[in-house]
Write a structure and sequence with these properties.
Elements (H helix, E strand, L loop, with lengths): L1 H10 L36 E10 L6 E11 L6 H20 L30 E5 L19 H16 L13 H15 L1
Parallel strand pairs: 2-3
Antiparallel strand pairs: 1-2
Helix pairs in contact: 2-3
Length: about 200
């Protein structure tokens, strides 16, 4: 096999290597037929995480700044620590972006307005704090190496942690947050609505 793939073109010009191997593995816990509650089990493992965010909210400008962010997640057996760390950092960045700035906007004619990076805002390195990641390792009994998904527990948890931190900061003022992203104009509008209710 090594000879065919590494030397075939040098030995026999124009010959396409024909060796091929296919193997399929299906974990034992997959069921595509719904259970008594109507739920199929179509994914072999579920990772999970706990997220915490420290956020400053400037009530004069509506600007929210994530000062500190920590996550402890369990993706089962960590096969490549560098890639797992990178996936969690990227997922947390996506969650923070969804919480604070990312938004698809259309004009009155239905044309996409946020069609380039000058209009579709995403967090840059300077917009993010150091992301502190810790690992809890409980191997999955359903996969060959005990691995689970390594990025799936990042986006939703990060978004929720940031939004809840902002909600907690503004709750004493009677602010109700009811839309995302929490851009400065959205936060200021929520503050003004709360002032009107409290007046």
């Amino acid at each position: 096999a090594l000879t065919v793939y590494s030397q075939a073109f040098g030995v026999a010009d124009g010959v396409t290597p024909a060796l091929e191997s296919t193997r399929v593995y299906k974990p034992d816990n997959l069921t595509f037929v719904p259970d008594e509650h109507g739920r199929p089990q179509t994914y072999p493992t579920y990772s999970y995480a706990v997220h915490a965010a420290v956020v400053d909210v400037d009530v004069e400008t509506g600007i929210s700044t994530v000062r500190r962010f920590g996550v402890v997640h369990d993706c089962g057996t960590v096969i490549n620590p560098t890639l797992v760390e990178g996936q969690m950092h990227g997922a947390v960045a996506m969650g923070i972006g969804a919480a604070l700035m990312e938004s698809i906007v259309h004009d009155d004619d239905g044309c996409l307005v946020t069609d380039r990076l000058k209009r579709y805002l995403m967090p840059r390195a300077g917009d993010l704090p150091d992301i502190e990641v810790e690992h809890l390792v409980t191997p999955s009994p359903f996969t060959l190496l005990g691995a689970k998904g390594a990025g799936e527990a990042g986006v939703g948890g990060a978004l929720s942690a940031v939004v809840n931190a902002i909600d907690d900061a503004l709750a004493p003022l009677g602010v109700v947050l009811d839309r995302l992203p929490l851009t400065p104009p959205t936060v200021l509008a929520a503050l003004q609505t709360a002032e009107g209710r409290n007046a």
